[in-house]
Amino acid sequence: MSAGAAEGPGADTERLWRLAVATLDGNWEHDHTVPSRTLYPHQWSWDSAFIAVGLAHVRPDRAWRELESLFRAQWADGRVPHIVFNPRLPVGAYFPGPEFWASDRADGAPAAATSGLVQPPVHALTAWLAYRRAPSDAARAALARLYPRLVAQQRYLATRRDVGGGGLACVVHPWESGLDNSPAWDGPMAAVPADVAVMRAYRRHDTRHAPAAHRPTDLDYARYVAIVAGYRDGGYRDDDLGRRHPFLVECPLFNAAAGAAEHALARIAPLVGADPGPHRERAAGITEALVRRLYDPRTGTFRPRDLRTGRLVPARTVLGLAPLILPDLPAPQVAAVVTEACSARFGVARQMDRPLPSYDRTAPDFEPLRYWRGPSWMNINWLVRRGLLAHGRADLADGLRRSMLGLVAGAGCHEYFHPDTGAGLGSPAFGWTAALVLDLLAREPAPAGAAGGRPAV
Questions:
Q1: Tens digits of per-residue pLDDT, 282-313?
Q2: What's the rounded mean pLDDT across residues 199-208?
Q3: In terms of Cα–Cα distance, which of 47, 46, 58 is closest to 20?
Q4: What is the set of active-site residues?
Q5: Residue 337's closest CA among 317, 351, 366?
Q6: CB 188 within 8 A of CB 247
Q7: Is the pLDDT confidence value at 105 over 90?
Q8: 253 near 122, Cβ under 8 Å?
Q9: For a pLDDT cut of 70, what percent of the chain falls above it?
Q10: Most buried among 10, 168, 190, 427, using CB within 10 Å?
Q11: How much of the chain is in helix, strand and coil states, percent to nearest 5?
Q12: CA–CA separation, 425 vs 427, rounded Å?
């Protein structure tokens, strides 16, 4: 099936459902889901969030275990680490592993070995969706346990990470954006000193399981390592980032996720006996700051801001479409972002009959095979689709849904996909792809005999 094909009736829908459930079951690891059994053998932060959305349709108890296991590794300052390491795995099972991060030497770190970075705060949104799609007394109790931790996560980002002072959180590493080697980071990363020879001291795990042409380069990794080493050696402190840290960027997706989290917390708060008002106020403040600091009226899209130079980055990436997930995004910005999504840079037709690429497909350095420099990713398309629905563009959202399901129908639950041919790239049997397929399919009654299936609430 081509990338633009819709899912077939009956048997094909059932096949996709069963494939997705089997993938999640195969990746379950005692209290969490690994993104994949090959490339990513530990627990990743935003992966677990997206995975919980799918689990809510088939294994609701696992959805809450997924989120609670992640938040048990929350740091004292509120940060939720982007990796929680499985102590059962041998040293060298993944690079960079726990011995490189050395979280046990940092103040406020949990007992579990973790990284010291974060990822986009999509967790409150996905907790709300998991509850809405499988409400129960147990789910409400899980929300009550998670709520103060979700609030602490937001507080950390709003205080420790507002380096620019404009009401937005900054990311201190490309890994924190989730879009590791996006062209959006080329400019900020060029200022990071790195020696490719340093990589000879390490053994990359990813290129043993996926072609090097699909992954970040050794130069990228050398810079990634250099940034982490400096942050680690400073105890992962955020008090003087503006003075000493080489990579400081305000990211549209990251901050849109923070705003969506506040909207979700405003819905969760009454269920757990808390006041939704402060969450609504903070959500409005984040949206206002996003428009003021990251919207470029000349090009009609949102762009990351490099705090080292004070300038918006020039690359037009899928990051610029992410603010659509904010229900209070002003109408002029909604219209401009929808136009960008339907343009030749990201769409190929007004019906969204192909999934969005991660980078401007008309750019001379567009790479349809390499990680975040062109391929299509299910999670970003899922977020943009939610934004289209929130702003009354069900026509485009339906086209995007069909194209996303077409990817998996043709290639399976891969990590990412060629944006034109639909070929599966990266890791097979990938967790969030499977989970979000279930969410896309669950608007219809579950196929007969499908494990745990239910329509969306």
A1: 999 999 999 999 999 999 999 999 999 999 99
A2: 56
A3: 58
A4: 180, 415
A5: 317
A6: yes
A7: yes
A8: no
A9: 89
A10: 168
A11: 50, 5, 45
A12: 6
To which H or E segment does residue 158 belong?
helix 137-159
Domain boundaries, the chain: 11-441
Residues 154/120, Cβ–Cβ less than 8 Å = no
Contact of 19 with 409, CB cutoff 8 Å = no
| Separation between Cα atoms, residue 104 and residue 96, nearest integer Å | 15
* Beta bridge partner(s), residue 45: none
Q: How far apart are CA 157 and CA 425, in angstroms?
A: 32
Beta-strand relationship, 170-171 and 249-250: antiparallel
d(CA 39, CA 432): 14
Token readout for 52 is 């919980």
Reduced to 3 states (helix: H, G, I; strand: E, B; else coil), residue 323 is helix
- Rounded distance, CA 9 to CA 291, Å? 42
Q: What is residue 8's predicted lDDT score, i.e. its pLDDT?
A: 40
pLDDT at 258: 98
Alpha helices in 202-298 (DSSP H): 218-233, 241-244, 252-268, 277-294
8 Å CB contact between 405 and 441:
yes
Q: What is the pLDDT of residue 115?
A: 98
- The strand pair at 416-417 and 424-425 is best described as antiparallel
**pLDDT of 6 over the 90 cut:** no
**CA dist list (Å): 369 to 2, 359, 404, 422:** 17, 11, 17, 11
* Cis peptide bond upstream of 60, omega within 30: no
139 and 130 in contact (C-beta within 8 Å)?
A: yes
| Dihedral (CA of 85, 91, 92, 97) sign | positive
Which residues, listed in sequence order, are joined to residue 399 by a DSSP beta bridge?
none
| DSSP secondary structure code for residue 112 in this structure | S
Report d(CA 449, CA 410) in Å as an integer: 23
Contact predicate 304/251, CB 8 Å: yes
What pLDDT digit, counting tens, does each position of 368-419 carry?
Answer: 999 999 999 999 999 999 999 999 999 999 999 999 999 999 999 999 999 9
Single-letter amino acid, residue 117: L
28, two tokens: 């379950």
pLDDT of residue 365: 96
325-334, 338-347, 448-457, range with the lowest pLDDT: 448-457
Q: Are strands 83-84 and 170-171 parallel, antiparallel or unpaired?
A: unpaired
Top-level class of domain 11-441: mainly alpha
DSSP H or E stretch at residue 43: strand 43-44
Using pLDDT thresholds of 50, 70 and 90, give the confidence band for residue 2: very low
Alpha helix positions (H), 160-251 = 174-177, 186-190, 218-233, 241-244
